[in-house]
Write a structure and sequence with these properties.
Chain A: InterPro entries: Cyt_c-like_dom, Cyt_c-like_dom_sf. Chain A: This is Quinol:cytochrome c oxidoreductase monoheme cytochrome subunit. Chain A: Keywords: Heme, Iron, Metal-binding. Chain A: One of its GO terms (molecular function) is heme binding. The complex is a heterodimer of chains A (about 200) and B (about 180). Chain A has about 200 residues and is mostly helical. Chain A has a domain of about 120 residues: Orthogonal Bundle (Cytochrome Bc1 Complex, Chain D, domain 2). Chain A contains 8 helices and no strands. Chain B has about 180 residues and is mostly helical. Chain B has a domain of about 130 residues. In chain B, about 75% of the residues lie in helices and about 0% in strands. In chain B, α2 runs antiparallel to α3, α2 packs parallel to α4 and α3 packs antiparallel against α4. The chains are: A mainly alpha (about 200), B mainly alpha (about 180). Chains A and B meet through α1 and α7 of A and α1 and α5 of B.
């Protein structure tokens, strides 16, 4: 008799370790002591409040230590008197533009298209969205850099804000990349550096 | 009771066997060995650079007495570096002598890179302390620490890494300073 008990125990343990099982139920964890701890982490359920969220939004107007945002051109794309900044307030390097390209292709290209012509995958599928404008018309080519930053941060008309998910520095990187995209559509031979032009003509 | 013990042993063996993972792969040690050789060679090259650095630092200290403690500090790191380079050779031989022991190879590679990084960090601390003393304006070119976590939503750490990649190497700071001073 004890042999049956031991074999049963052994089989049970082995089966509990099987990961190949497909089940729609939560898997069996024999020891749940510390799996779900009596504290809340970010994005967890909190039954105490009406909205049952563990993350409590801060009171409007609070300022975190180290985030005073005194540098208004950098944080808001506006000068102290509220006008949009003409030029990007950070140094534009090839690395910044490369980072901007990466971020643009993640967040922006779905609607605005990788070429910036407003032909992203969402716009080509007849889903009933308001068409995204092309970046290559005169209005957007001549607009201030700060305006583009403002649109990313807070949205405009039918476009939602992206400020809550794109860091401030990345927003400027995206602006730099959009500027590069705009330049690409209106490039002339004189924009190409001498040595590269010779290469292009050679081919 | 005896049978129970046997079953218990079987259980332990089963659990033990199911917990076994093989992290290496055939021929993996040879590849790791190549990386180990590259890492220890880099450490030896950096030792030569550090020797050139300390020579410059001694020359600077001859003119400015306040730099003497920094020379002593630099020397002690240099001694640790010399010992480390010898030890790396020894560790490398151990890996060569155990061609089937991939765990030893991985551990050795990790130990060499970690110790090398720590030495570079120590050099950097002394060198930038000298820079602070000699020419405070150069401090702007020192590598920047990644800011607090809450600041990541303003400046992701990737940007700081990019800036630091272009900073002066810790083993060239003193010579760069000397060149700046003329």
């Amino acid at each position: 008799m004890p042999r049956t008990i031991w074999t049963g125990l052994l089989l049970g343990l082995l089966l509990a370790g099987c990961r190949g099982m497909i089940s729609s139920k939560p898997p069996v964890h024999p020891n749940l002591n510390m799996d779900f701890q009596e504290k809340f982490e970010a994005q967890e359920l909190n039954p105490f409040f009406a909205d049952r969220r563990a993350m409590r939004p801060p009171v409007p107007g609070t300022v975190p230590r180290g985030l005073l945002k005194e540098d208004t051109p950098f944080y808001f794309g506006k000068t102290a008197d509220g006008a949009y900044v003409e030029r990007i307030p950070v140094a534009v390097t090839p690395e910044l533009v490369a980072r901007g390209q990466e971020r643009y292709n993640i967040y922006c290209a779905v609607c605005h298209g990788k070429a910036g012509d407003g032909q992203g995958i969402i716009m080509r599928g007849n889903y009933g969205y308001t068409p995204a404008p092309t970046f290559h018309d005169d209005r957007l080519r001549n607009v201030e850099d700060g305006y583009l930053f403002e649109v990313i941060s807070n949205g405009v008309r039918n476009m939602p804000a992206y400020g809550h998910q794109i860091p401030v520095a990345d927003r400027w990187a995206i602006v730099a990349y959009v500027r590069a995209l705009q330049r690409s559509q209106y490039a002339t031979a004189t924009d190409v550096p001498e040595e590269v032009r010779a290469q292009l003509q050679g081919e | 009771m005896k049978r129970h013990l046997g079953l218990l042993g079987l259980l332990v063996a089963l659990i033990g066997a199911s917990g076994c993972r093989f992290y290496g792969y055939p021929g993996g040690v040879a590849q790791t060995l190549m990386q180990i050789e590259a890492a220890s060679e880099q450490a030896a090259q950096d030792l030569e650079q550090a020797l050139a650095e300390i020579e410059t630092l001694r020359q600077m200290a001859r003119r400015d007495e306040a730099l003497a403690p920094y020379v002593a500090q630099y020397e002690s790191i240099l001694h640790a570096h010399q010992r480390a380079v010898l030890e790396f050779e020894h560790w490398k031989e151990e890996v060569v002598n155990h061609p089937d022991d991939y765990r030893r190879a991985n551990r050795t590679l990790g130990a060499i890179t970690a110790r090398h990084e720590a030495l570079l960090q120590q050099y950097a601390e002394v060198a930038w302390a000298v820079a602070r003393r000699v020419n405070p304006t150069l401090q702007a070119q020192a590598p920047v620490a990644v800011g607090p976590r809450f600041f990541f939503h303003v400046l992701p750490p990737q940007y700081i890494r990019l800036v630091n990649e272009q900073a002066i190497s810790p083993l060239q700071v003193v010579r760069y300073l000397a060149a700046q001073l003329g």
